[in-house]
Design a protein that fits this description.
With 145 residues, the chain is an alpha+beta fold. It has a single domain, classed as 2-Layer Sandwich (Glycoprotein, Type 4 Pilin). It has 2 helices and 4 strands; from the N terminus they run H-H-E-E-E-E.
Length: 145
């Protein structure tokens, strides 16, 4: 009487382990990049709040606000609180021509931490304000328009 064995062969198990290893090698870097982008969302949201205040100042006064060297000056003059030093923002400033500059920290990515993210305003003939991102962040982490 022949007895039939049940289970997997060693080759089948090695193939499954190899496939899992390949998937992990692809998925882990992509997961890390997405978590850094999610952390940068907090930075860009804070920048958008400051940009809204700078834009409102420009629409009301017809000129850009005076230079704001830090988050305290931004809160005092523009009425927007910036969470500097709390999580992902190391420094924040507004230039005399409305340029907003934030320095990133604490993302866990060495190529992102201590880099700057800059929003530069331009105005149209009709008075609309367009904001453009720039800075020292790599293109992979630079926010879209």
């Amino acid at each position: 009487m022949l007895r039939r064995q049940k289970g997997f062969t060693l080759i089948e198990l090695l193939i499954v382990i190899a496939i899992i290893g390949i998937l992990a090698a692809i998925a882990i870097p992509m997961y890390r990049a997405q978590t850094v982008k999610a952390k940068l969302t907090e930075v860009t949201n804070s920048m958008s709040n400051v940009a809204t205040a700078v834009g409102a100042f420009y629409q009301d006064e017809g000129a850009w606000p005076n230079a704001q060297a830090d988050e305290t000056a931004i809160k005092t003059s523009l009425g927007v609180a910036v969470p500097v030093g709390v999580k992902y923002i190391n420094a924040a400033s507004v230039g005399a021509n409305g340029v907003i500059t934030f320095t990133v920290q604490g993302t866990g990515e060495p190529t992102v931490d201590n880099q700057t993210l800059i929003m530069t305003p331009t105005t149209t003939a009709q008075g609309a304000i367009n904001w453009v991102y720039s800075g020292s962040l790599s293109a992979a982490y630079m926010p879209k328009k």
